[in-house]
Structure formats: structure tokens, C-alpha cells
Design brief:
single chain; 230 residues; alpha+beta; seven-stranded antiparallel β-sheet; four-stranded antiparallel β-sheet; 46% helix; globular
């Protein structure tokens, strides 16, 4: 294997989670404010209108705020550097964090996401590397070029994956061909475990998410109506 270096912009899972938590407060303010104003100005309209309007305003507002937040992160603080040498040693650098391991130490690789997002996780016996790259509304921290570079990294190690890993079959994957090399790869000899979500079909996952969302929205609106809109 030839030595190779891959550079692209993205985030790690901790930074992404921190941004998501910071986004909760303004998102709640937008939602509650929209519900309250809708109750004042459109009190005679069906209760579904405030819910739909609040959901729409929350999504649009969250996307705008998220874009502003990620724009505040300096380019050097979003840069991933991954180096592979001839001995299959991998060095992954993000900010001041350096992760070193050999490809033979990898026990699982997850390459998930959709057309505009990549969630790449590499797990060894004692380390966990989580890379987030995306150029969508809720992942505005990379470009299409960065996504292609991450895909190029997966392409580069794919022969090794094919030789040493089994592919985990995910029934909930609607279209496993959307992402190049999409999938979960587990080293041969390791036990492949399936969660309840993994065993579910796509329509079952969608139905479950929609059902939970509807229940939460109904409960939320009833609580709001009881305490604020008497």
C-alpha cells in the first residue's frame, strides 16, 4: 500500500453534538414564540395551523442559526488530515487531537449518511474515530469537494475492507447505493450484532419516527394550551 494523505473540512462528533445542544435554546424560543403569536393573531384557526407554522419556522430558523454558528469556526479548526503509510499505519489529525492506529487494529467501520452527509466511524479495540462531513442545511460545515475527498479515502482502503471485513446487512437502509461504499463493515471473526432498528425495514422505521413525532407534538401542544393558552 502506497503512502497517502487526505485533507478535507468537517467536524468530529463531539463538536457536532456541542453545536446541536447550543441550537436547542434558540430553536425552542422560535417554536414557542411562533405558537404564542399564532394563538394571538390566529386564535380562530384550526390548531394544526400553529403547529405546522411553528415547525416550519423552527426548521428554517435553525438552519439559518446553524449556518451562522458553523461560519464562526475557523477553517483550520474544521480540517481533518488522514495519513496512511506503506505499513498500513493511519494517523488522523483534527485540531490538537492525534489518533494513531494500524489498519489491522480496526474492528468495525461505519460509513453512513445520505447524498450530502457522511458519518464515518472507525473503531479499534481501544479507540473510536468519528468524522462528520456534510454540505446540507443541517450539516453546513463542508463542501462537495470535501465529501469527495472523504469518499476517496474510503475508496483507497476498500480493497483492504473487502479482504478482511464482512458487510453488516442493514434492513433499514432504503438505498445502500446512494453513498459510495455505504455500509457497516465488521472484521471477520468479530461478532455481528443487530439492534431492533437494524432489523426493521425502511417503512417500519419511517412509521415509528412519524408516530413518535405526532405523539410528541400532540402532547406538547396540549401542555402549551393548558399552561399558556387558557
Amino acid at each position: 500500500m502506497e503512502s497517502k494523505e487526505f485533507r478535507f473540512q468537517g467536524l468530529d462528533a463531539k463538536t457536532e453534538l456541542r453545536i446541536a445542544l447550543l441550537l436547542v435554546i434558540p430553536a425552542l424560543i422560535i417554536m414557542l414564540g411562533t405558537l404564542y403569536l399564532s394563538h394571538i393573531f390566529f386564535s380562530n384557526i384550526s390548531f394544526l395551523f400553529p403547529l405546522i407554522l411553528a415547525a416550519l419556522m423552527t426548521v428554517l430558523g435553525s438552519i439559518a442559526i446553524l449556518k451562522l454558528m458553523t461560519n464562526q469556526i475557523k477553517d483550520q479548526d474544521k480540517e481533518w488530515i488522514i495519513r496512511i503509510d506503506a505499513q498500513k499505519n493511519i494517523t488522523a489529525i483534527f485540531r490538537n487531537n492525534v489518533c494513531n492506529f494500524n489498519m489491522n487494529d480496526i474492528v468495525m467501520i461505519k460509513n453512513m449518511g445520505n447524498e450530502g452527509v457522511r458519518y464515518l466511524t472507525i473503531k479499534t479495540k481501544d479507540q473510536l474515530l468519528k468524522i462528520r462531513v456534510g454540505n446540507t442545511g443541517f450539516a453546513p460545515f463542508s463542501s462537495e469537494k470535501d465529501i469527495k475527498k472523504l469518499d476517496a479515502f474510503i475508496d483507497y482502503i476498500k480493497p483492504y475492507i473487502n479482504e478482511n471485513f464482512n458487510t453488516k446487512v442493514l434492513k433499514n437502509a432504503m438505498n445502500p447505493n446512494i453513498i459510495p461504499n455505504f455500509g457497516v463493515f465488521v472484521r471477520r471473526g468479530e461478532t455481528i450484532k443487530y439492534s431492533i432498528i437494524n432489523r426493521m425495514k425502511p417503512w417500519q422505521v419511517i412509521a415509528m419516527i412519524l408516530s413518535i413525532g405526532i405523539i410528541i407534538m400532540i402532547l406538547f401542544f396540549n401542555i402549551m394550551e393548558y399552561y399558556f393558552f387558557k
